[in-house]
TrEMBL record:
Gene transcribed to yield this protein: adk
Location in the cell: Cytoplasm
The protein, known as: Adenylate kinase
InterPro entries tied to this protein: Adenyl_kin_sub, Adenylat/UMP-CMP_kin, Adenylat_kinase_CS, Adenylate_kinase_lid-dom, P-loop_NTPase
Domain Adenylate kinase active site lid: 127-161
Amino acid sequence: MRIVLVGPPGAGKGTQAQFIASHLSIPKISTGDIFRANVSGGTELGRQAKEFMDRGDLVPDEVTIAMVRDRLAEDDARDGFLLDGFPRNVPQAETLKKILAEWDTRLDIVLELVVDEDEVVRRLSGRRTCDKCGRIWHVDFDDKQDDVCDDCGGRLFQRDDDKEEVVMHRLEVYRHDTSPLVQFYADENILVGIDATGPVEEVTKRALTALRPLERD
């Protein structure tokens, strides 16, 4: 099955992508993971990407598209994949469609995770990351009263792209560049909206229910 996951930052795409991909035994292909790996590794691409990511802007299309195309060509994605974080705009979606057409295939479904913007701000601006083990805590959901990681004792800090003003900018970018994807894929008749509020397990259940008619025996 070939799936694209769309939704605003903070909708839970990464978490849901992991569960769905595992359930279907297909690779989860996340541009976010690739960018973060390059940033932490100090590569040239990472340095370029970080400038955009820290401002809440998108990494340029030509870099993202080339990276995704190479990843989709790998053997483990031959029989299916789940794309998380790509495409982010209509031109990328059109390019993805052309790439898949070259390989005589197409997307099966696009799942849109739907969540209120106020909830997005609460989810992201409340996140704190451990500077030692990298675990993410939340000041509300984890009832954190200090800035110390309960797992390793590391210091908790707020990533630049989780600061409220950056989150608001990321939402503005999403509305301008990524929201038109909803109409694009609706016109393709492969868009299904999923309520992304509530417990993670409930959101996963809704997503798997939407996918069930497309699962192959």
